[in-house]
Amino acid sequence: MQLLIEVSILLLATAIAAPFGRISRIGSVLAFVSVGIVIGPWGLRLINDSEHILHFSEMGVVFLLFIIGLELQPKRLWALRRLIFGAGTLQLLSTTLVLFSLLWLLDFSWQSALVIAYGLALSSTAFALRLLADNGQMQSPHGKLAFGVLLYQDLAVIPFLALMPLLVSGAVGVDNKDAYPAWLGPLVLIIFIVVARYLLVHCLRLVAW
User: Fold this and answer.
1) Per-residue pLDDT at 190
2) Which positions ≥6 away from 191 have C-beta within 8 Å?
3) CB burial class (10 A; 0-12, 13-18, 19+) of residue 133?
4) Residue 50 carries which DSSP code?
5) pLDDT of residue 46
């Protein structure tokens, strides 16, 4: 019963936040975040247990990314290849390097500094693209540049996650007894690429048939 009440409050807040974000011109994403803070455990406490609605937020992000994926066109991706791999690489490497240097000067271990710097160098694709779409700036020069950088960041997350076991195994003070082998991450990534390249297309054709 409590979960049903919290879901009803969440849906009502969503219905209020959407037109409020459009009228106030702050964007729907910021409106949703603001209303969530107001009704959450640190606001009016209409929803006290955030774990109950965590799955709803995860589903919302998945649906949003799915909609964004439906709007992407291969021709557009190919036209933006220089922005994706040029500007994206420059942004990610330069931001990570600056943050890594600052954290290194603050006596962080190089493994911790690298993970934190890399994480802070990434942006939220769901949030940024939604803001650009709400303001009608997706086709503008800065909108295309932002899209290319965000897409490159999404692609760059995969190899970094695969290399995380190497950083964990080399970190000082980490108990490696229960850690995954360092080679497991890259192996899973290679298997995923091979399966997606040679088997996924045939599986999708079978499903379509």
Assistant:
1) 82
2) none
3) middle
4) G
5) 83
